[in-house]
Amino acid sequence: MCTPMISAEYLIPKAHCVERSSMSGKEKKAAALEEKLQLLRSATKSNAGNKTSILVDASKYIRELKDKVDEAAADSSSRSDTSTQVNVSSVDLDCRRRGFRINVSMERSRPGLLVSVLEALEELGLDVLDADVSCADHSAFRFQALGSSGQGETVDEQMVRQAVLQAISKCMDSDDDE
């Protein structure tokens, strides 16, 4: 006895169900093709009866989905262009005995960004002993530095990370206002 086959939104009735063991190779292929067409018909919500119409409806459905995706992508890119976002790729901080190593990477730079980061470190009482910087207006920004705590204290990793992120955010916001 053959049980009904259940698909995404379609129930194949028992009348269409044939024992596969008694079918020839051609009949099995035809039954598999028919089953796939019915799945395609249900997925695209097509009312077509013949194979060609089902495929045409599926093609239209795919085109509509593609248009929706393109529209959503265009909408998303226009929204991201108008919104103020601070896209910090990474701020890595390695605190050692009385010192630190920091790496800041961003996809875009702004004028004054390096100064803002250095001022934030200075406000925390941290001395930058060695720095490697790569930045230009509106292109990638890379900052790697080794430093120490001026008073010989240990460095609070979370506090430094937060101060650097705030300095970056403040610099990005002030540049957007101009």
Automatic annotation (TrEMBL):
The UniProt entry lists the main location of this chain as nucleus
Quote the subcellular location field of this record: Nucleus
- A molecular function GO annotation: sequence-specific DNA binding
Cellular component terms (Gene Ontology) = nucleus
Question: Which Pfam families does this UniProt record tie to the protein?
Answer: bHLH-TF_ACT-like_plant (PF22754)
Task: Indicate the segments forming the Plant bHLH transcription factor ACT-like domain, all copies.
Answer: 98-169
Q: Which InterPro entries match?
A: bHLH-TF_ACT-like_plant, TF_AMS/ICE1/BHLH6-like
What top-level branch of life does the organism fall under?
Eukaryota
Q: Which organism is it from?
A: Eragrostis curvula (weeping love grass)
Q: Which residues form a coiled coil?
A: 23-75
Protein's recorded name: Plant bHLH transcription factor ACT-like domain-containing protein
* Keyword Coiled coil assigned: yes
For this UniProt record, give its keywords in alphabetical order, as a comma-separated list: Coiled coil, Nucleus
